[in-house]
Design goal:
- A 7-stranded parallel beta sheet has the order 3-2-4-1-5-6-7, sandwiched between helices.
- The chain has 3 domains: 1-40; 42-252, 3-Layer(aba) Sandwich (Rossmann fold), CATH 3.40.50; 269-313, no CATH class.
- It is 55% helix and 13% strand.
- It has 13 helices and 7 strands.
- The structure holds guanosine-5'-triphosphate and magnesium ion (MG).
- Magnesium ion (MG) binds next to α4.
Length: 316
């Protein structure tokens, strides 16, 4: 075992931060550490938190950290900012919001920005979750803005997906709401101190009721809880709901299966990427490929026939 692997398993923050950086940079040392720590993962409760921009997710995460710490849990946080390559503004905001935990060694906060390539962010997030899990954090909270499918994928790979909603949002958010509704395990209606909370609350309750109707009796019924994150109101009930959901997953064996699913998802994503690259490299050695690619650009052949032709002429 490498020194950094040992230090990481002992929970040393500097080692964890370094491993995450290596993994992010695709430095081969990152992969080696990951191989070492992988058998020590699968314990942490992974909680994805998503919702529209400005819904109060970071404020709420800060409140959840406080409550989890009061219950004696060690907490890791990954703040995902898909919009920023450098996580400049977001980090700053999140740091300020979570500052009161900065000196608490039972709390570790990391921010991740997009790496540019497709799937890069979900890979970085997955790797960081494994690192925090191996470091012994009991709970890992992953915050991301719920706008696109990629971001929804990131959080729905967690054990427990928390959807944050707020009153006073327009139609655009209704659409987001529909997509998010399917993946939520716990719904937090934040900014309950604002006007319109009753109406949104009723709408969401109806939607959740309709969603619940085709489930089996043993299925989890997602609760809808009101919160005022800035004042810490509703935090205890929110943490209770997270724990109840983890207990539900453990009782049905889904808790362990989820780790396997995540790993399988990552396995196929990695294969897909590598296989496509290899296939294109090989295909480009054939002289016919350049002509085929030109035909695709010139719309002389439909994309499906072109893909079939390329596969037929290339050995996998
Ligand atoms: N009135 C009210 N304001 C809140 C509440 N929770 C958060 N806010 C405010 O909402 C604003 C956005 O909060 P953030 O925690 O940054 O929201 P976010 O969802 O993390 O934002 P992004 O990460 O940028 O999408 C801040 O000004 C908070 O103080 C609440 O319960 N009530
Ligand atoms: Mg935030």
């Amino acid at each position: 075992m490498t020194d950094i692997g040992c230090a990481l398993l002992a929970g040393q923050v500097a080692a964890g931060a370094r491993a995450i950086r290596w993994l992010d940079d695709q430095d081969p040392r990152g992969r080696e550490v990951l191989r070492e720590i992988f058998p020590h993962t699968g314990r942490a409760h992974l909680v994805g938190i998503t919702g529209p921009p400005g819904a109060g997710k970071s404020t709420l995460v800060d409140a959840l950290i406080g409550e989890q710490r009061a219950r004696g849990r060690r907490v890791g946080v990954i703040a995902v900012d898909p919009s920023s390559p450098f996580t400049g503004g977001a980090i700053l905001g999140d740091r300020v919001r979570m500052q009161r935990h900065a000196l608490d060694e039972g709390v570790f906060v990391r921010s991740m920005g997009t790496r540019g390539q497709a799937g890069g962010l979900s890979r970085s997030t997955y790797d960081a979750c494994l690192v925090l899990d191996a470091m012994g954090y009991d709970v890992v909270l992953v915050e991301t803005v719920g706008v696109g499918q990629d971001e929804i994928d990131i959080v729905s790979l967690a054990h427990t997906t928390v959807i944050v909603m707020v009153p006073g949002l327009g139609d655009e958010v209704q659409a987001i709401k529909a997509g998010l509704l399917e993946v939520g395990d716990v719904f937090l209606l934040n900014k309950a101190d604002r006007d319109g909370v009753e109406q949104v609350g009723r709408e969401l309750e109806l939607m959740l009721h309709l969603r619940g109707q085709d489930g089996e009796a043993a299925a989890w019924r997602p609760p809808l809880l009101r919160m005022v994150a800035t004042r810490g109101e509703g935090t205890g009930a929110a943490v209770d709901a997270l724990e109840a959901h983890a207990a539900h997953l453990r009782a049905s064996g889904q808790y362990q299966r989820q780790a396997g699913l995540r790993s399988y998802h990552q396995f196929t994503a990695t294969l897909r990427e590598a296989a496509t690259r290899r296939l294109l490299e090989r295909a480009l050695r054939h002289s016919a490929t350049a002509a085929l690619v030109a035909d695709v650009h010139d719309l002389k052949v439909d994309p499906y026939s072109a893909a079939e032709a390329l596969l037929a002429q290339t050995e996998l």
